[in-house]
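Researcher: Let's do a round of design. I'm pasting the structure tokens now; please hold your answer until I've finished.
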């Protein structure tokens, strides 16, 4: 089953950043630019995985797309591909929920000693 494959893929990772990185590369591999562009719906081809919010928004976007496709054509190629992407995103989100939130690291603020005056 596909969802079991995705579960095994995300299990070894210990940070949300690692999960997002593998998620992004897996999506890129699934939507290889060398393949037929008509196969991949534009709604799911430009998904961004830069942070947790973007992953959640991508999941909702694909879920809505899948729900609409179920009503229109159940056996379409786009619906099948979107279903696989939805399963991938859902599994990644489940794994991210299990991991702790990563601290936000900001660039150090320049202090008076670090600023040179002209």
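Researcher: That's everything. Go ahead.
Model: Designed sequence:
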């Amino acid at each position: 089953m596909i969802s079991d494959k995705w579960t095994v893929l995300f299990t070894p990772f210990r940070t949300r950043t690692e999960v997002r990185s593998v998620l992004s590369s897996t999506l890129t591999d699934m939507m290889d630019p060398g393949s037929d562009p008509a196969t991949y719906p534009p709604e799911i081809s430009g998904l961004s995985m830069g942070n947790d919010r973007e992953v959640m928004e991508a999941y909702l976007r694909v879920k809505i797309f899948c729900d609409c496709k179920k009503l229109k054509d159940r056996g379409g190629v786009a619906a099948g591909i979107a279903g696989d992407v939805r399963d991938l995103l859902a599994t990644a989100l489940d794994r991210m929920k299990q991991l702790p939130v990563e601290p936000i690291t900001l660039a150090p603020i320049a202090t008076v000693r670090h600023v040179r005056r002209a």
